[in-house]
């Protein structure tokens, strides 16, 4: 546990050395870094990659895909998620996000936190945020529910 | 060409018999209908499937995936598109959408039209909208640019 | 009627001199240009203003408001619309959009077309797109239904 | 401080009696409850109201406004926010949200948390979530940064 400032918010964050993480997590981070290369981000020039592991061990990856109408853009995390879900896989067991901002880790935006939280069923989804080029590579270890506390759910609706 | 009313808008629409369409288009529609089965739509109970063919002949499919926060939902067309784009395929040559509304064909929403239009490069993308259960199966034959005339593009931004 | 190219799409567009338009339309365009000054667009540096007139003669205005997570951005047209709707006014009779792109008129994005089309009840909404600085000022005269032909509506849902 | 379960997430939440809150907060909650009456929610039948106070003491209110294409819907919190911002007020000092779900408080969705966090400048924004009909009225007292810990910001982009 390390006390750090991330994007202006103070928190007890679990920042760990990449090499100390479970090999399956390291694999997920590598998959996210690789997916990042497909990013379509001509407006921001800010490439993001993501990877989701499902309960059967599969990895689904995504990148951010922007639109001239910014509101129609889709983030890397949601790209990875809809790929899995549309293949019948909704049981996510881990998520990795890779992007490069000098001021700290890039965490999922609120839209993606909301999207992923729909598929947290009883158990949380660990989430790993890494920077591709800051060595030695350090990883922010958090989770979907930690990132969206007291999340909005619409239970009347189902 | 048949003069019909679609969702309240009068237009000259090219509605054709399914069996008269090119076999590659029929294949795309079948792929969309199959993808529809994975829809996650507990709020609307309205399942949509989509399929995109890329210039190398591949087919990418998607379904709609809803969220308790409705604004975070992603449609079938965008699910299919981000799957292709995240695999490095941005050159779409045809799109099919399948859903069942009694009052007419289900066309892509404005968000999806905007999203797809980003990847219309010089040439248009034919789009086929079909209903899964109305026999004999008829198909609305249109295109992304027909559905988003004078589309918004942010050319300053690139 | 003038045949022009707008954002790469050829169409019969009704482009008119500003001074030839109805004074109420000129007033709406001025309101949109004024609202544009409040735009929050640090990411695109692309300011847009919009104005909606409701059936009681009121004008509601909006600007675009961006977010670091691009997908969470809201356009000028929707800003104007939610202001009116949240005040109990849903009966729109005209819309104006003002922005500056050198290559042509800035029309509403697909998200906004979809949003506005929800409130087209039986009759269409005229839409005027103007550039603030190209003199003599010319205005693209179109409508919500022209910009979203065969629009998506979810009639099962109500 | 009370230990409660909200939407499945365990947390130390500050749930207080309505009558014990500062009169300015009570006024904000009443404004949100009043704004809720304008909700346009034919798809979910789930009405939400929101109110934002700006540093000059003004209150801006909003309701949720849905769309047949769910993704194009806009929540009450964002409606209130864009109203203020488009009037030149970006300095929010408090936010209230009012809705009725039997299983707990209705908090802002991730999209709204992301949207509001853009306007947290150095200081946090207190946020009050209330249910209109559960008496004696209790209020969840939290904040934008508590609801979006380690929030995504795109600092390269400005
Ligand atoms: Zn995101
Ligand atoms: Zn759509
Ligand atoms: Zn727009
Ligand atoms: Zn929301």
Structure, described:
Four copies of one chain form a homotetramer. By secondary structure, chain A is an alpha+beta fold. Chain A has a single domain, classed as Cytidine Deaminase, domain 2, CATH 3.40.140. Chain A is 23% helix and 28% strand. The first copy, chain A, contains four helices and seven strands, in the order ββαββαβαββα. Chain A has helices at residues 23-35, 76-86, 110-117, 144-147, and strands at 2-6, 9-17, 48-54, 59-63, 92-99, 126-130, 138-143. Chain A has a seven-stranded mixed beta sheet. The longest helix of chain A is centred in the N-terminal third of the chain and has 13 residues, at 23-35. The radius of gyration of chain A is 15 Å and the shape is globular. Residues 1-12 of chain A have low confidence and may be disordered. The A-D interface holds A 6-9, 11, 13, 44-46, 101-103, 105-115, 117, 122, 140, 142, 145-157 and D 6-9, 11, 13, 44-46, 101-103, 105-115, 117, 122, 140, 142, 145-157. Bound molecules: zinc ion (ZN) (4 copies). One zinc ion binds at residues 75, 77, 108-109, 111-112 of chain D. Chains A, B, C, D: GO terms for molecular function: cytidine deaminase activity; zinc ion binding. Chains A, B, C, D: It catalyses: 2'-deoxycytidine + H2O + H(+) = 2'-deoxyuridine + NH4(+); cytidine + H2O + H(+) = uridine + NH4(+). Chains A, B, C, D: This is Cytidine deaminase. Chains A, B, C, D: Keywords: Hydrolase, Metal-binding, Zinc. Chains A, B, C, D: It is an enzyme of class 3 (hydrolase).
């Amino acid at each position: 546990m390390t006390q750090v400032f991330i994007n202006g918010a103070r928190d007890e964050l679990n920042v760990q050395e990449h090499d100390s993480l479970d090999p399956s997590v390291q694999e997920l981070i590598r998959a996210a870094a690789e997916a990042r290369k497909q990013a379509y981000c001509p407006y921001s020039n800010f490439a993001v990659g993501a990877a989701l592991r499902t309960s059967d061990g599969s990895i689904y990856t995504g990148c951010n895909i922007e639109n001239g109408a910014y509101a129609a853009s889709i983030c890397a995390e949601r790209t990875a998620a809809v790929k899995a879900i549309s293949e019948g896989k909704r049981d996510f067991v881990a998520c990795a996000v890779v992007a490069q901002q000098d001021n700290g880790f890039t965490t999922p935006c609120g839209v993606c936190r909301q999207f992923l939280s729909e598929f947290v069923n009883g158990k949380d989804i660990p989430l790993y945020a890494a920077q591709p080029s800051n060595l030695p590579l350090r990883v922010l270890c958090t989770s979907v529910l930690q990132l969206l506390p007291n999340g909005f759910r619409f239970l009347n609706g189902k």
